[in-house]
Design brief:
Elements (H helix, E strand, L loop, with lengths): L1 H25 L14 E7 L4 H17 L3 E7 L5 H12 L5 E5 L5 E3 L1 H8 L2 E4 L4 E3 L16 H4 L10 H21 L3 H10 L2 E3 H6 L5 E2 L3 H8 L3 E2 L9 E2 L7 E3 L4 H9 L2 H20 L5 H17 L6 H19 L5 H16 L12 H27 L6 H5 L3 E8 L2 E6 L2 E6 L9 E8 L2 E6 L3
Parallel strand pairs: 1-2, 1-11, 2-3, 3-5, 4-6, 5-8, 14-16
Antiparallel strand pairs: 6-7, 9-10, 12-13, 12-15, 13-14, 15-16
């Protein structure tokens, strides 16, 4: 019995030991509850002009930050400015995002000009790298500059009040009020923001920090994460209230552009959209003129659809677009109904003016370069000149097909002739003939002209 008791106690002890080992293996390291993981930080780089592609990328980054419960989104930015519509779309996304956004002007040598300054002011945290700058946020007027590049107010004669540019005043007042509202929301220097709009002034990173335009200066993203650790970000009550950042050990996830972002960035370039549109039109025109080649029609259709997709995202001046369409219609008319250059010249002029007016913005990176417009105009003019030249040469060429081509110069024999007309056999057929001199039956004649069903002939030995 004693041996049995010892065996039972040994078995119980072994089972207890195995149970404790299993619990220890299943428990978190250290024997305590696992600490909650630090939320990640999303990093999005914006390099170049602010356009529809950049706005789309920022929107999707903010949506992903909400899904992944990220604690911060960092916009690393280097931009000369961009479109007002794209800028306002980005700012709306930042203001409505429950995830704080830090705009970081980097690397050294970068800038946040024009639209970039507004985005910097709208962000929860504004940071810059050394040797960077921001400012020059005056909205650019659309149209031709005044003579000599002098503003109308400055070029007015002394003692005579300058004419008030109402549209320019409305643009500047609207932009300055927008900047002032963003500055008041984030507690930044509203006076300098308004000065950047009205006077197009700029600041370096050190000056911006001194004037309380930005919150801090960081050498790079890791340095930015160290400085932001423990900072309290103010948010609206509906967005969760104040948030304390823990970025020192947070994972930084870089959001690289995918194929759709790259395609959107390329297609939304106005110059490429214009080139694609012309390639599409010429491809379809060649296919219509030569049915059955297939390849020109397929390439032209794809290029035209891509061009329309790119243009619908850009600020299009519809008068310019209508002029381009009118010019293309004139090109088509010249190809199918040759007018010896009249329609073609009108088409070239309409296309050139339409290309100049097509983009309704002078924002950096979104104007169609003059050399491209000139090159495409010259190419179109060359096509028109070629078509008109071929039409003119065709008028002077001898006929090479039909009855006139086969009968003129042919010889035959007179069957009967009376007065100035009669009948003759030419090319094995009986024809009514006409001659300026009397002919005898059986005499050989040669055809000089075809007039309907009557042949003008002369003696073959004449």
């Amino acid at each position: 019995m004693a041996a049995s008791s010892r065996l039972i106690r040994a078995v119980c002890t072994a089972l207890a030991t195995l149970a404790s080992l299993w619990v220890a293996a299943a428990a978190p390291p250290g024997g305590a509850q696992s600490a909650p993981a630090v939320p990640p930080v999303l990093l999005l780089r914006i390099d170049g002009a602010i356009g529809p592609a950049a706005a789309e990328r920022v929107s999707r980054a903010l949506e992903r930050a909400g899904r992944d419960q990220a604690q911060l989104v960092v916009l690393e930015m280097d931009t000369p400015g961009g479109l007002d519509t794209a800028m306002r779309s980005i700012i709306k996304g930042i203001l409505g995002s429950p995830v704080p956004v830090a705009t970081f002007v980097a690397p050294s040598g970068a800038r946040a000009a024009s639209a970039g300054t507004y985005i910097l002011y709208a962000s929860h945290i504004a940071a810059m790298a050394p040797a960077t700058n921001l400012g020059a946020a005056t909205p650019i007027a659309i149209g031709m500059p005044s003579p000599g590049g002098v503003p109308p107010a400055a070029s007015a004669p002394a003692g005579k009040p300058a004419e008030q540019d109402t549209l320019a005043a409305k643009r500047i007042n609207d932009a300055s009020a927008y900047m002032r509202a963003l500055a008041q929301l984030r507690g930044r220097n509203a006076a300098w923001g308004e000065q950047a709009v009205r006077e197009a002034v700029s600041l370096s990173a050190a000056e911006a920090l001194k004037r309380k335009v930005i919150d801090l200066i960081a050498a790079d993203v890791p340095d930015l994460m160290r400085q932001l650790d423990g900072r309290v970000v103010q948010r609206a009550a509906a967005q969760g209230g104040p948030l304390t950042l823990h970025t020192a050990n947070a994972a930084v996830i870089t959001l690289e552009p995918d194929w759709r972002d790259k395609l959107l960035a390329v297609i939304s370039d106005p110059s490429l959209a214009l080139v694609l549109m012309m390639v599409g039109v010429y491809g379809l025109l060649f296919e219509f003129m030569n049915p059955g080649f297939v390849a020109p029609g397929v390439i032209g259709g794809v290029c035209l659809l891509l061009a329309l997709w790119g243009l619908q995202m850009l600020p299009i001046n519809y008068a310019g677009l209508a002029l381009i369409v009118l010019g293309i219609a004139f090109f088509v008319g010249e190809a199918f109904v040759p007018s010896y250059g009249t329609l073609g010249i009108g088409g070239v002029a309409a296309f050139a003016f339409g290309a100049v007016l097509l983009i309704d913005s002078d924002a950096p990176g979104f104007a169609i370069p003059w050399p491209l417009i000139a090159a495409m105009t010259v190419v179109s003019a060359a096509v028109v000149i070629g078509v008109a030249g071929m039409a003119a040469r065709a008028r002077t060429r001898p006929v090479v097909s039909g009855s006139a081509a086969t009968l003129v110069g042919a010889s035959g024999a007179v069957i009967e002739f009376a007065g100035d007309s009669g009948w003759a056999e030419v090319n094995g057929e009986r024809w009514r003939v006409r001659a300026a001199q009397p002919l005898q039956p059986g005499q050989r004649v040669r055809v000089t002209r075809v007039d309907g069903l009557t042949l003008d002939v002369r003696p073959a030995d004449a």
